[in-house]
Design goal:
Number of helices: 15
Structural class: alpha/beta
CATH class of the largest domain: Alpha Beta
CATH superfamily of the largest domain: Mur-like, catalytic domain
Number of strands: 21
Helix content: 25-40%
Shape: globular
Strand order of the largest sheet: 8-7-9-6-10-11-12-13-14-15
Number of domains: 3
Distance between the termini: 57 Å
Radius of gyration: 22 Å
């Protein structure tokens, strides 16, 4: 796709970004503006982020047209931009440099101590926790996160410090365009098989990513995840000079968690490391998976020389990432949360967190499967994870970029859920959870599609129901 793999920032010239309203491309746009480059961009929809970028001095267009390129030297595109788009075709005809979003981000990271966070799931929250921790202690990091983060205010920013924390997306293999000094791997599982084909190919991509580390690099892997633990073992054998650290509840972990428990609205555990020191980790975001994410962030903090107590205090003040167990409202002691989980392991973790928050109350879930191919691969695992709830409403599959696959429907999941479950439309699903929920219960909307818009509607319906 690109004409030069390791593009330098000074060689970009004037940059035009296609799909600039997306969270990944808008992050690159913000960073390039912070670097002082001339930026323009186009998106199909007029999104709120476009006005923010206009206010920063970017020339923004809504609707693709060849003339929008102006006098651009370089074009940066998201993965959804394909031949046939008039701007893409015009850029090709003019011989402009065309870079993937990841290559634009790699150029923006130039000259920094790059910390990249990869994994099938958990990477957004881990990236956000790490950036929040560094910023809270005054380290002024640069960062690029795949979601909007309340405590950071933006999804990307060029800081004055040496460290750049970036979420590294493995979905299309583009994380191989980075040149990291530190890699966090939260987990390695079969996903994005529409791109990779096999689970082995997914694992190999993470091996190739880890091989990008320099001799003085640091690889941080979750010891509790079989794929990440395998990666740590392989890299220790293959590159004995490389520093490899693990974290988790496993007895073998270098940064080890124990005694995890909810305390009111907080989640608490003991964290200890090889020096024999231990501290209490106290988080405002629920679930053992977030204790793991925070421990990975803490490992980065210790790596860059932060005081452990200061780092833990900073992590304790983190309020969460958008669509990661995000509270949408509370009515009559019924809380409504939204979560982006769209892989069975993520759904299982989200529901375990929901169970912990509900305590003795019940858990009611509206789940929207994402992609026909993912549903075909994992419908049994989705059903098993959703069985942690008390009631489950399943929406039709959100197709995203895919065409339907014969025989693949939400019924594949619903028919196998061990608790009360049905395939419903959005109105029926909202009515079901509102009728089912009682004070002390938790309602969750889960999925990567437009199910996220149901949270406010559920809150409104609960208010009406209480009158």
């Amino acid at each position: 796709m690109s004409q030069q793999l390791h593009q330098k920032l000074s060689e970009l010239g004037k940059v035009h970004l296609m799909g600039i309203g997306g969270v990944g491309v808008s992050a690159v746009a913000r960073l390039l503006l912070d670097h002082g480059l001339s930026v323009s961009g186009t998106d199909a929809k007029d999104l709120p982020v476009l006005e923010e970028l206009r206010a920063r001095g970017a020339r923004i267009h809504v609707g693709y047209a060849a003339e929008n390129l102006g006098d651009a030297d370089t074009v940066i595109i998201s993965s959804i931009i394909k031949p046939g788009n008039p701007e893409y075709d015009a850029a090709t005809e003019r011989g402009l440099q065309i870079l993937h979003r990841s290559e634009g981000l790699a150029a923006a990271m130039e000259g920094h101590h790059a910390v990249t966070v990869a994994g099938t799931h958990g990477k957004t929250t881990t990236t956000a926790l790490t950036a929040h921790m560094l910023r809270s202690v005054g380290a002024s990091p640069s960062f690029a996160v795949g979601a909007n983060i309340a405590s950071l205010g933006v999804n990307a920013e060029l800081g004055e410090g040496a460290v750049f924390v970036a979420e590294a997306d493995e979905s299309d293999g583009s994380f191989l365009n980075y040149r990291p000094n530190v890699i966090i791997v939260t987990n390695v599982e079969a996903d994005h098989l529409d791109h990779y084909g096999t689970a082995d190919a997914v694992h190999q991509a993470f091996v190739d990513f880890a091989r990008l580390l320099p001799e003085d690099g640091l690889l941080i892997c979750c010891a509790d995840d079989p794929g990440a633990a395998d990666l740590a073992r392989q890299m220790r054998r293959e590159r004995p000079e490389l520093r490899v650290q693990t974290y988790g509840f496993s007895d073998a972990a270098d940064r080890r968690l124990s005694d995890a428990r909810p305390e009111g609205e907080r989640f608490v555990a003991t964290v200890e490391w090889g020096s024999g020191e231990s501290r209490e980790m106290n988080l405002g975001i629920p679930g053992e998976h977030n204790l793991l994410n925070a421990t990975a962030a803490l490992a980065v903090g210790l790596h860059v020389g932060l005081d452990a107590d200061a780092a833990l205090e900073a992590l304790a003040s983190f309020t969460g990432a958008a669509r990661r167990f995000e509270l949408k409202g509370e009515v009559a002691q019924i809380r409504v949360f939204d979560d982006y989980a769209h892989h069975p392991t993520e759904v299982h973790a989200a529901l375990r967190a929901g169970r912990a928050v509900a305590d003795t109350g019940e858990l009611h879930v509206i789940f929207q499967p994402h992609l026909f191919s993912r549903t075909r691969e994992f419908y049994r695992q989705f059903a098993e994870a959703l069985s942690l709830a008390d009631t489950v409403a399943i929406l039709d599959i959100y197709p995203a970029r895919e065409e339907p696959i014969q025989g693949v429907t939400s019924a594949l999941i619903s028919d196998r859920v061990a608790v009360s479950s049905a395939v419903l439309n959005t109105e029926q699903a909202i009515a079901r959870v509102v009728e089912s929920a009682a004070p002390g219960d938790v309602i969750m909307t889960i999925g990567a599609g437009d199910v996220t818009y149901l949270g406010p509607q559920i809150v409104e319906a609960l208010e009406t129901h209480q009158r």
